[in-house]
User: Which sequence fits this backbone?
């Protein structure tokens, strides 16, 4: 059985490499202004990959979650495909991460590698041993967030004109990204962990007795570790959503530009005012100074 599974995972991996090659070429044609070709190809790949994962995870969760026996011993075709897709994609994506050149991706590389290593170990275990598929499917429901994240990544690869044309979609997508992130990461992982522990406590003969030490230790540990990564990424997610919904960053930039212009005007007025003062004609603050003070307050309020 292990040889058959390994053969299938190899086939899935080859197919994923081919799919990435197609997305790479397509991104060159569709998104020539993308900041990074590897990043844009990854975004295109996610258009099809993440919805497929969500449908498979949802089907397996519903069909295996009915009772404790199916949660710990049951498998369905959707859970098997889900495990092979996740395992093969992580194996392909680990070297692919090193192709990305954006500063943000280079900074996040250690966290990405940690996440991928956890997925490879846990879903590899479930794929090859065929146990406890429900827990992997339930945790994989978090991939809903990546459907919205993919749209955000696509917007980062298109022209300013396209961003302006579809800005309403961008804002709504950002809002749903944050909502799904809170529900299907910050709330889902603790709920799955508690469900897991409840089965262990209330039905030990039907849960832990049916799996090995690897599942007993690695499954809950991986759940908590991915939850920790999700908490670490939560603040940037919220900041990005607020920026897109309310334009805080744009407002601050406009205020800064106006204030800079006011400083330039004040400098010129100060030079002219010195001569006016010497002639007795300068006896009130200049309007540019008042403009500068007003926009300085605007910057502070925007921050």
Assistant:
């Amino acid at each position: 059985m292990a040889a058959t599974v390994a053969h299938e995972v190899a086939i899935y991996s080859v197919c994923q490499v081919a799919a990435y090659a197609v997305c790479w070429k397509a991104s060159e044609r569709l998104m020539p202004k993308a900041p990074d070709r590897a990043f844009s190809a990854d975004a295109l790949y996610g258009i099809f990959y993440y919805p497929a994962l969500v449908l498979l995870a949802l089907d397996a969760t519903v069909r295996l979650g009915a009772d404790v026996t199916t949660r710990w011993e049951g498998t369905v075709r959707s859970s098997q495909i889900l495990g092979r897709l996740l395992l093969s994609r992580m194996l392909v994506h680990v070297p692919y991460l090193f192709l990305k050149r954006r500063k943000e991706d280079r900074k996040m590389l250690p966290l990405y590698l940690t996440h991928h290593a956890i997925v490879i170990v846990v879903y590899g275990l479930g794929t090859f041993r065929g146990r406890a598929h429900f827990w992997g499917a339930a945790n994989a429901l978090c991939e809903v967030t990546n459907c919205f994240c993919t749209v955000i990544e696509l917007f980062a690869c298109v022209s300013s004109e396209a961003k302006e044309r579809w800005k309403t979609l961008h804002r709504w997508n950002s809002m749903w990204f944050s909502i799904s992130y809170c529900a299907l990461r910050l709330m889902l992982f603790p709920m799955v962990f508690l469900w897991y522990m409840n089965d262990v406590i209330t039905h030990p003969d039907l849960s832990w007795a049916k799996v090995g030490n690897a599942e007993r230790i690695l499954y809950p540990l991986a759940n908590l570790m991915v939850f920790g990564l999700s908490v670490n990424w939560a603040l940037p997610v919220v900041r990005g959503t607020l920026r897109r919904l309310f334009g805080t960053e744009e407002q601050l930039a406009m205020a800064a530009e106006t204030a800079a212009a006011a400083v330039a005007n004040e400098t010129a007025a100060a030079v002219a005012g010195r001569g006016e003062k010497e002639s007795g004609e300068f006896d009130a603050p200049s309007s540019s100074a008042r403009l500068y003070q007003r926009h300085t307050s605007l910057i502070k309020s925007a921050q």
